[in-house]
Write a structure and sequence with these properties.
alpha+beta, 3 helices, membrane
C-alpha cells in the first residue's frame, strides 16, 4: 500500500499563506468605523476645551527679574507677580548656592491691590513688582521664585 506524496501538489497561495501566517485581519464594519471617528472627535474636542479653560483659570503667574547678594547672610530677589487685582497671593522665594542647594527660603504674602493702585496702573493693578530680602545660611549665587499660588480662605 502506498500513500500519495502530497508535497508535489501545489496548494492555492492564499491557503498556504493562511496556514503559515494566519487568516487575514477582518476590517471594521462601516458602522464601527463611523463610531470610532465620532468618539475620536469627541475626545479631541474635550481635550481642546480642557486646554483652553485650564489656561484661562491659571490666574497667578510670576517672572524672575533679578537677584543681588549683599553678603554671605543676605540676598535680595526681585520678581513680578500677575494676578487678578482683588486676589491675595503667596509666593515661595528661595536662594541657592553654587551647588544649587537651598540656602535661604521665605514665603511672602502679597495682599490684594487696593482701588487706588488699580486706577494708577496701566494693567489695572494686575502686575506687581516685589523685592524680597532673604536671610541665607551661606553665600547665595542665585535667587528665584519657586512658586506662587492663591491661598485657600481660612475656615471660619
Amino acid at each position: 500500500m502506498t500513500t500519495e506524496d502530497k508535497s508535489g501538489i501545489a496548494e492555492p497561495a492564499d491557503i498556504s499563506l493562511a496556514n503559515r501566517y494566519g487568516r487575514p485581519k477582518r476590517r471594521l464594519s462601516r458602522k464601527a468605523r463611523r463610531w470610532a471617528v465620532i468618539v475620536a472627535l469627541a475626545v479631541g474636542m474635550g481635550f481642546l476645551a480642557w486646554v483652553s479653560t485650564s489656561n484661562a483659570t491659571a490666574s497667578v503667574t510670576f517672572k524672575d527679574i533679578g537677584y543681588r547678594t549683599t553678603d554671605a547672610t543676605q540676598a535680595e530677589v526681585d520678581f513680578q507677580v500677575t494676578r487678578e487685582p482683588g486676589t491675595a497671593v503667596k509666593c515661595a522665594i528661595k536662594a541657592l548656592d553654587s551647588k544649587f542647594a537651598v540656602v535661604g527660603w521665605k514665603v511672602v504674602d502679597i495682599p490684594p491691590a487696593d482701588q487706588e493702585a488699580q486706577g494708577q496702573s496701566a494693567d489695572g493693578g494686575r502686575t506687581l513688582a516685589q523685592r524680597v530680602v532673604l536671610r541665607t545660611e551661606s553665600q547665595a549665587v542665585s535667587g528665584v521664585v519657586d512658586n506662587c499660588w492663591i491661598p485657600k480662605p481660612a475656615a471660619s
